[in-house]
Specification:
four-stranded mixed sheet, alpha/beta, UDP-N-acetylmuramoyl-L-alanine:D-glutamate ligase, 13 strands, 289 residues
Length: 289
């Protein structure tokens, strides 16, 4: 565990990985051939790492519950997560190996993510789990990301009356895997990439009890719907040069949550989210320095 600084503002639970990022002129066709990379590097990844690092960069105290192996990838990920304000409550991977991805990035920010090693399931009996449960009763928010090892926190948050923030990315409204997170979320973030009727789905989730639903549209900004039926839109913030889009969605959620914890209304939080997401894409890092 990395030493934290006092009571966490936010608990984040979900995946952390060690990634190889390869930038190409275009994603390869499914035929045998050779391509040349424009560049490559290794870095920490995973949607929960992205949210935790961005929240810490915004000055929040964060407890990150995840799974890491006792391997070189795990040691590299731990080192990358050793930043001020971030406390790591990691469980040992049952096979000793850390989740790893190969991300192929096209020139237009398209991404093909290849699992080099899938995450391990772990029992909820390690010291990090107990630390996480204790933090739930103190933190201002809990973000539970899409990972089987994070799913038990959905029930724990409900039992304690803690509102859940969930980011289901490019959910298609049909996948059964995503459903527990969708149903548990008081604050639900999703993408319109695979949801042509996203407004109808947003209305459905608010009618089911969500306090807020936010749908992102990549370079076209985002749309939000609150529990009073009010709709909001925000434009994406333009940047001079996009370096890497990995982590932009997590930066958007972190920017919104940070503003929300400061008491901002939905329009102000959306604007803060858009600004922070724009800062993320200007570097290779998951979070801006």
């Amino acid at each position: 565990m990395t030493a934290g600084a006092g009571v966490p503002d936010v608990v984040v639970a979900g995946p952390v990985s060690w990634n190889e990022i390869v930038h190409l002129d275009a994603l390869p066709d499914a035929v045998p051939h050779t391509v040349f990379a424009r560049g490559s590097y290794r870095t920490v990844g995973g949607t929960s790492a992205g949210k935790a690092l961005n929240l810490a960069a915004l000055g929040r105290r964060v407890l990150l519950r995840t799974v890491l192996g006792d391997d070189d990838a795990g040691r590299s990920a731990r080192a990358a997560l050793a930043v001020p304000g971030l406390e790591l409550a990691d469980a040992p991977a049952s096979d000793g190996r850390t989740e790893r991805h190969l991300n192929l990035m096209g020139a237009g920010s398209e991404r093909l993510s290849v699992y080099l090693h899938a995450p391990s399931d772990v029992p909820t009996t390690d010291p990090g789990w107990e630390r996480t449960l204790g933090a739930l009763d103190q933190a201002g928010a809990v973000v539970v990301d899409l990972a089987p090892h994070a799913q038990p926190l959905l029930a724990e948050a409900a039992r304690r009356g803690v509102p859940v923030w969930a980011d289901v990315h490019d959910w298609d409204a049909r996948s059964a895997f995503h459903r527990p997170w969708v149903d548990a979320a008081s604050y639900l973030f999703l993408s319109s990439e695979r949801l042509p009727e996203y407004r109808a789905l947003m209305s459905e989730r608010v009618a089911a009890g969500a306090r807020l639903v936010v749908c992102t549209h990549g370079a076209d900004g985002a749309t939000a719907l609150d529990a009073d039926g009010r709709w909001y839109d925000v434009d994406a913030v333009p940047v001079e040069r996009v370096v890497d889009t990995n982590g932009a969605g997590d930066g958007f959620v972190a920017g919104f949550l940070d503003a929300h914890l400061d008491g901002a209304g939905v329009p102000e939080a959306l604007a803060a989210a858009a600004r922070h997401a724009a800062a993320v894409v200007t570097s290779e890092a998951l979070a801006p320095a």
